């Protein structure tokens, strides 16, 4: 850690770290535009942010980190030349980072409609995943060709197929636990914290089911400028919040105590 990262880390409670952090990496294009550079330069610069964030998360003991790398909508709304560049950049990243992932005991996984990606990309993804399969530390998940709505659709298709194999609609069981077991993220805890860079205030079709009770932290930092210190600042903000899951917070519970004391005083009079 550098000095700034160490300063923030010392303010954290290591016993209250989020188990799973999800990050919407946004701002590559704006980063490049502000520097009068092509958009692809922003994507290239964003790789350094990924490396710093992943290494810092693993170093402090985060159990799972999910990065929104490429949405299903990107296929339709980005120029083909940019999409092709992103696919090449992904392949280079996967080849270059296997050693770093293994050195940090990180296991690499993916979510999204992987089968729709180019075959050459799928091969690199599979190779990198297999190369880190034996690691027992943090699980790094890349969301590629990902859409939360498509994930839910695929989960219900999977549920229907399971029911058909089991004897038909009478075996079609639907509850929250069963749906979760058919999502791409099965086996992972739901994220405790979701971080969005570049100041945008939306989820952009990312983990809509899993983020139901996640704390949201938005930073104006553009993704290529995001580093370990910004990650730690997001965790610090997370630790200052009270997670209620629909219940009453401690402040609300304590607010009743003076009223009880007042009632006792009035009764004595």
Overview of this protein structure:
- With 269 residues, the chain is α/β, with parallel strands linked by helices.
- It is built from 10 helices and 6 strands, in the order H-E-H-H-E-H-H-E-H-E-H-H-E-E-H-H.
- The protein has helices at residues 3-9, 28-34, 39-60, 72-77, 80-103, 119-131, 148-166, 176-181, 228-239, 250-268, and strands spanning 20-24, 64-71, 107-111, 139-146, 193-196, 215-218.
- The longest helix has 24 residues, at 80-103.
Order of neighbouring strands in the sheet with most strands: 3-4-2-1-5-6
Helix and strand string, N-terminal first?
HEHHEHHEHEHHEEHH
Low-confidence stretches: 259-269
Number of helices: 10
Helix fraction by DSSP (H/I, runs of at least 4): 40-55%
Name the quaternary structure. single chain
Question: What count of domains describes the coordinates?
Answer: 1
Task: Looking at this protein, list some descriptive labels.
269 residues; alpha/beta; Undecaprenyl pyrophosphate synthetase; six-stranded parallel β-sheet; 10 helices
Short structural summary:
With 269 residues, the chain is an alpha/beta fold. The chain is built from 10 helices and 6 strands.
Secondary structure topology:
Elements: H1 3-9, E1 20-24, H2 28-34, H3 39-60, E2 64-71, H4 72-77, H5 80-103, E3 107-111, H6 119-131, E4 139-146, H7 148-166, H8 176-181, E5 193-196, E6 215-218, H9 228-239, H10 250-268
Parallel strand pairs: 1-2, 1-5, 2-4, 3-4, 5-6
